[in-house]
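Re: weekly structure request thread

Next one in the queue (265 aa):
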Amino acid sequence: MSGIYFHMRLEFPTAETVRQWRELALLTQRDHLEAVPGFDAINIGDDDLLGGEITVGQQTELDAAIAYLHQIGFPVDKSRILEGAMSAQQEIAAMTAIDDVVGWCLARLRTAPESYCADPLAPHPHAARLSLPNGRPAPDCLRLWAAFDNYYPLRGSRSNAIIADNHGVLVVEPMQAVLRWVCLESIMDEIEDDEDTQEYLSELVAGFVGDFPGYGVVLAEEYPDPLLWIPPAGEPTVIWYHRDAFDRRQAFSESVAAIGTAGAG
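Done, posted below.
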């Protein structure tokens, strides 16, 4: 779609005004929209109330796009527009919140979803309420992504790994089980008569368990093995098992950013 894209973000002078907006505005949103079919899929938290996006189609001149916005009752102050200030990569680099990066990239992907996946998207109907198997809320960035598609991204496209089941619980296992599968059990047919190698790999897994607490999931059956690691605190991270080590890592927001900047440039 050709046109001019506007990204708006609210600014607050103090932390107290941010708190008041989040409490009052979010409650108002819920009061008005909770009963509407499909609300669960769009109720992805506070960040959607702190900004917005709109594209004025078939326009190449900023003044004409602003005039159209005025016509439809959405006045924009031209003096506050940063026209062409940052590239997509620079905008992402300027963001400090993981969820900001994921939300920004998703806004771009929604304009060209075919750049991510040729198959129909499968947003999770309860994305806003996804949880881990222990009952704790799933990381916000995963809930944001699941509202777009209930499959994890991998290498710029959709993986075969489902994010959550029909009950809204992430389809993950404790990292100890995931690590044991990737490092040992998946190749047991090859080493079933080699007790020394089995012992070595068991010790290797025991060491990895201390480095990678939390939950995880295998994203694809390939080598190097890609896993999504969900730590107890911090951002979910894709890690690759290669030659008895996890030397390559990529934060979930980085993997999404790569799709967003390439796909909807």
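The first strand starts at residue 3 and ends at 9. Residues 1-85 form one domain.
Next request, please.
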